[in-house]
């Protein structure tokens, strides 16, 4: 073996790749996790704290995914209302005057608003996104407390 030296980050990446290559099907048990940690010199307290942090991160990640689904659902509902109402208005304009006139202004104005909403729906970073996420979390928390 060579006498290479590895940083902590290098060790983590190498071990992650090695674990991913394991042909084993299934998952690790809690005792296997504790055994691996002990072999690496990680105390039970450090392992417990790391697991707590991981669970909090998982919970936040799941909430963000749920928030994104909520935002997309809201956008698609808006898009559906836009399509239905504007189809009616364009049809009414067409039948009443034989062409398109006033309905185009509504179609384009509202269409711009829908396009901007769609753009912001798919933005998952930034101050505005974080503010909306926190508001959604508070609203969701109140709903869960009512149940």
Describe this structure in words.
- This protein has 147 residues and is mainly α.
- It has 5 helices and no strands.
- α3 runs antiparallel to α4.
- It is elongated, with a radius of gyration of 26 Å.
- 1% of the residues are buried.
- The mean pLDDT is 90.
Distinctive features:
single chain; 147 residues; mainly alpha; elongated
Strand content: under 5%
- Biggest pleated-sheet summary: none
Helix-strand category: mainly alpha
How many β strands by DSSP?
A: 0
Based on CA inertia axes, which overall geometry fits?
A: elongated
Count of helical stretches: 5
Order of helices and strands: HHHHH
Q: What would you report as the Rg, rounded to the nearest angstrom?
A: 26 Å
Low-pLDDT parts are none
What helical percentage do the residues reach? over 70%
Average predicted local confidence, pLDDT: 90
C-alpha end-to-end distance: 61 Å
Describe, in short, the structure shown.
Helix content is 80%, strand content 0%. It has 147 residues and is mainly α. Helix 3 runs antiparallel to helix 4.
